[in-house]
C-alpha cells in the first residue's frame, strides 16, 4: 500500500492510518458511529454499527492502548436526554468484546478527565452521547479542544458521521495527530474504489424515494457505469417525463425536465438505462390496501406504484447477469410494508447471486438486504447512509479531509 499511484483509491492513503501510529500505552480517542436503532424500551434492535467498529477496537486492545470511545446517538438537540443515552451500547459492546467497558456519564469535564487519567493499558471507556452538548454539532473549537485533552491520538472510525463537520469529526483533529480506523478505510476503499476503478461491466441500481436525492449520484456515475437500473419511487418521475400516465405515484414535478436530460445524456453515452415495465399499485400505503399488478404504462388515477412487478424483476435480473461490479443504493418499492416488499427482496437475491463484486450503500438498502436474508452474500455493505451517498456523489468527506497527512 506504499504506492499511491497503484491504488484505485485516491485521497485516503496519504492520510495517517491507525497502523502508522505507535499506540502502545497511548490514549486513543476513537470516534465511532454507535448511532444504533433502539426500540421503544430503548433496546438495541440492530448492533451492526457496533460490530463494524470491533476490528479497530480489538486492534487497539491487542496493541495495549487506552481506548476512549465516543459517538453520537440520535438527535438529542444539545441537551442530556436519557432516551439517547449510550449506556445500553456500553453493555452491548462489553458483551461483544468480552471485556469490561466503563461508561462515563459525560464526554468532557473534570470527572471525565480524572477517570481517563486513571486508565491502565487495555482499558476501555465509552463516553456519553457527544450530542448532549450543542457544541458538538456547532463544531465549537473549545469543545473540540476539550475532547482532544483526553487523548494522545485521534482515530476516526465513524464512517457514518464522516460527512459532518462536527467537533468530534473535524474540530478535534486540529489538536491531535489524527488517523483513520479500519472501518473508515474499508468504507472509502470499497465506495471510492468502485467509482474510480470498477471492474466492468459495472451496473448501478438506484432506487428509493426521490430523484432529487440521487441526481448527483447519477451524474457522478455517468461516465463510469455500463448500465443504470432505476426502481423505487424515483422511477415514476422518469416514466412521467417519458409521457406515461403514472396515476398518483410519487412524481417530482420540478425534476421532470432534468429526468429527461439525464436519461437522454446517459443513453447518448451508450449506457443502458432500465426503468420498471410493470408495477404493484395500491390506493394507499396501508398494509391491508388492495393491490393490483399493472404494466408501467397503465397506472390508473387514484392508484400509486408501490413496488416493481415480476417482469421488472426479470428484466433487471437479466441486466445484472454478466455484471462484474454492482452498486445498489435505494429500495425498489415501499419495502417497509410486507405486501410491497417482493420486488426489493427479489432484487436483493439477484444481487446476492451475481458473480460480481457487490456493494450495497446508503439509506435503507442495508436493511432491505438484511430482511431478505442475503447480507452474508454481499461483498460489502456500507454502514453510512448520508456519508456513502456523498462519496458516491463525488464529494470530499470532511472527516477524511481532517485527518493528518502522511
Ligand atoms: P431513500 O432514502 O431515498 O433511499 O428512500 C427510501 C424510501 O423510499 C423507503 O422508505 C421506501 O419506502 C421509499 N420508496 C421506495 N419506493 C417507493 C415508491 N414507489 N413510492 C414511494 N416511496 C417509495
Could you explain how this protein is built, in words?
Helix content is 33%, strand content 15%. By secondary structure, it is of the alpha/beta class. The protein has helices at 48-52, 54-62, 87-97, 110-117, 134-137, 141-148, 167-171, 182-196, 215-221, 235-241, 256-268, 310-320, 342-353, 365-371, 385-392, 398-401; strands at 27-31, 66-70, 102-104, 124-127, 153-156, 178-180, 202-206, 227-230, 272-274, 278-282, 291-295, 304-308, 325-329, 357-360, 380-381. Residues 1-11 have low confidence and may be disordered. The protein is built from 16 helices and 15 strands. The longest helix has 15 residues, at 182-196. α10 (235-241) crosses α11 (256-268) and α12 packs parallel to α13. It starts with 26 loop residues before the first strand and ends in a 5-residue tail after the last helix. The strands form three sheets. It has a six-stranded parallel sheet, sandwiched between helices. A six-stranded parallel sheet has the order 9-8-7-13-14-15, sandwiched between helices. It has two domains: 18-183, Rossmann fold, CATH 3.40.50; 190-392, 3-Layer(aba) Sandwich (Rossmann fold), CATH 3.40.50.1260. Bound molecules: adenosine monophosphate (AMP). Residues 208-210, 213, 232-233, 250, 305-306, 330-331, 333-334, 336, 363-364 line the site of adenosine monophosphate.
Amino acid at each position: 500500500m506504499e504506492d499511491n499511484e497503484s491504488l484505485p483509491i485516491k485521497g485516503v492513503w496519504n492520510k495517517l492510518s491507525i497502523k502508522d501510529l505507535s499506540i502502545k500505552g497511548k490514549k486513543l480517542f476513537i470516534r465511532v458511529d454507535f448511532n444504533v436503532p433502539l426500540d421503544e424500551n430503548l433496546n438495541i434492535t440492530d448492533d451492526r454499527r457496533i460490530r463494524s467498529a470491533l476490528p479497530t477496537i480489538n486492534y487497539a486492545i491487542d496493541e495495549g492502548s487506552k481506548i476512549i470511545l465516543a459517538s453520537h446517538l440520535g438527535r438529542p438537540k444539545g441537551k442530556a436526554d436519557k432516551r439517547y443515552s449510550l449506556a445500553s451500547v456500553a453493555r452491548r459492546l462489553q458483551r461483544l468484546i468480552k471485556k469490561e467497558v466503563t461508561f462515563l456519564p459525560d464526554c468532557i469535564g473534570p470527572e471525565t478527565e480524572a477517570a481517563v487519567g486513571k486508565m491502565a493499558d487495555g482499558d476501555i471507556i465509552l463516553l456519553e452521547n457527544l450530542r448532549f452538548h450543542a457544541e458538538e454539532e456547532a463544531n465549537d473549537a473549545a469543545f473540540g479542544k476539550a475532547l482532544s485533552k483526553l487523548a494522545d491520538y485521534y482515530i476516526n472510525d465513524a464512517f457514518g458521521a464522516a460527512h459532518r463537520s462536527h467537533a468530534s469529526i473535524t474540530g478535534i483533529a486540529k489538536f491531535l495527530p489524527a488517523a483513520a480506523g479500519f472501518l473508515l478505510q474499508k468504507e472509502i476503499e470499497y465506495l471510492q474504489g468502485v467509482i474510480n476503478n470498477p471492474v466492468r461491466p459495472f451496473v448501478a441500481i438506484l432506487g428509493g424515494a426521490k430523484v432529487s436525492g440521487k441526481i448527483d449520484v447519477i451524474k457522478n456515475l455517468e461516465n463510469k457505469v455500463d448500465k443504470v437500473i432505476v426502481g423505487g419511487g424515483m422511477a415514476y418521475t422518469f416514466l412521467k417525463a417519458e409521457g406515461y400516465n403514472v396515476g398518483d405515484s410519487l412524481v417530482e414535478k420540478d425534476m421532470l425536465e432534468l429526468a429527461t436530460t439525464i436519461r437522454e445524456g446517459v443513453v447518448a453515452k451508450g449506457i443502458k438505462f432500465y426503468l420498471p415495465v410493470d408495477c404493484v399499485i395500491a390506493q394507499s400505503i396501508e398494509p391491508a390496501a388492495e393491490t393490483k399488478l399493472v404494466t408501467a404504462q397503465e397506472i390508473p388515477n387514484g392508484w400509486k406504484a408501490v413496488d416493481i412487478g415480476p417482469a421488472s424483476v426479470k428484466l433487471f435480473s437479466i441486466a445484472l447477469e454478466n455484471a462484474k461490479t454492482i452498486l445498489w443504493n435505494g429500495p425498489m418499492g415501499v419495502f417497509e410494508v410486507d405486501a410491497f416488499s417482493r420486488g426489493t427482496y427479489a432484487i436483493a437475491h439477484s444481487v446476492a447471486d451475481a458473480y460480481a463484486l457487490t456493494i450495497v450503500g446508503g439509506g435503507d438498502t442495508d436493511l432491505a438486504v438484511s430482511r431478505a436474508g442475503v447480507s452474508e452474500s454481499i461483498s460489502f455493505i456500507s454502514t453510512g447512509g448520508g456519508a456513502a451517498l456523498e462519496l458516491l456523489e463525488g464529494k470530499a468527506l470532511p472527516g477524511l479531509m481532517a485527518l493528518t497527512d502522511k
